[in-house]
Amino acid sequence: MIQMEIQRYDYLGNSSIGFYATVTSTQAVYPPEFKEEKKEVFDVENTVETFINRTRLVGLFTAGNSNCILIPEGATPRERKKLEEAGIDFQVIKTNDNALGNLILANDHGAVISEKIEEHREEIAEALDVEVTVSRIAGIKNVGVCAEANSNGVLLHRETGEDDAEKVMGALGVEDADIGTVDMGSPYIGSGLLATDTGILTSENTTGPEVGRIDRTLMQE
Question: Which residues contact 184 (CB under 8 A, 6 or more apart)?
């Protein structure tokens, strides 16, 4: 069994770690100057450092799973070339709502997307090779920032109701779900957490009780 671990990290002093990287079990996209020792938490061989949309906000503008990283049309030719040279499997999603990390919650078993990009449902399903469900979380359209998931479970915005939680669990094919916060009380889980099946990073300000809930929901027993 893989030994998982949780570590804390603020990227260049910013606690919104989820906005700065997209990490899956097989490939990861980081911004420049992301600490090498923190990348080791995820044990992913196929990685690259790049800007996306000319910004360091890689996690805000991208989303995906082990099969594919979805990137916005605004990614520059140079950025796309860096992904190609690193062997990252990616697909461009042409939408005006280009903060894909805010709009897509995915693991290797399923995906939940915002109604804002419902017209791209089939395209996203084909790229990620999973079934895609359109939903809200806690009444919020930006589902990607409201939760974080891996193959073990999903941690959801603290205002998520039981019906929404059951729907997301079914869509992602996980057995565990809980509500919580990160970064000293933020309900926007996806902004302060990166999780794969091998490791987890959260912000330096995430409290002990918050880490405990992350552990119980997303870590292997």
Answer: 205, 206, 207, 210
